[in-house]
Design goal:
The protein has about 260 residues and is α/β, with parallel strands linked by helices. The protein is about 35% helix and about 20% strand. The longest helix is centred in the last third of the chain and has 14 residues, at about 245-260. It starts with 11 loop residues before the first strand and ends with a helix. It binds S-adenosylmethionine.
Amino acid sequence: MLKPIKRLGQNFLQDPNTIRKIVDAITPAAEDAVVEIGPGTGALTGLLSQRYHRFSAIEIDPRAAELLRETLPGVDIIEGDVLDVSWADLATRLEAPRLCVIGNLPYYITSQILFSLLDAAPLISEVVIMMQYEVAARLIASPRTKEYGILSVAVQLSATPKLLFPVSRNVFYPRPDVRSAVVRLSFPEKLEEHGGVDPKFLRRLVRMAFNQRRKTLRNSLSALTAELGVALPENVTSRRAEELAPEDFVDLALYLLRTA
Ligand code: SAM
């Protein structure tokens, strides 16, 4: 057992039933490769590498990477930061059209990992990840709830999220301060093109709208509409970000770009 490093989000899974439940939750296609984020001491890695031959695991802690190379010889362990990984290069190296990604995430970078996977969407088939329960609730949130925000819109525009099950704090060592849940994101085979809208513009619009979520869109988007020299459509001006469904943001982005 390694001495856990808090700064790296190291909370190791101890319970065989939970481990099996998480591993059983992925449904990769035969041609997919499976990639694990943050294998740590290998709680999920042993089972995963037995089941899937096109398999890699990305781990930042050199002590854990060395331990895994000893305990699971022949398994592809990539030592480095998951945020530096090119999913496209990895898919090419693993000779897979798409990747199925799994992991008990380091919680301090959950959102960044999510955005990096969303940006690689055409190459990702499915994601099954454990995260803080409150973040999981945000991914599946509906408009007009307090959990609904940037993450909900971004995720729901690219994938279908499902909260699979909560996980007790007692199955980790050390016991984390927060509650956890496992979430599955299923990606469509064909990338959602959203009417051809520039994804960067769409994300900027969503961010600006939610950065001042209490304000009406007329106010929260005033800098953007001024920059583009356009007015918001009538039916949107007095609404707030949390009232718009993900597809409403797409429609709004298309309207603004076409009218500008
Ligand atoms: N999978 C193991 C388990 O379930 O017991 C460990 C999970 S632990 C919550 C998160 C793991 O992610 C740790 O092993 C940690 O070292 C690793 N990690 C933290 N930051 C990382 C990063 N930026 N890139 C890759 N791995 C990272």
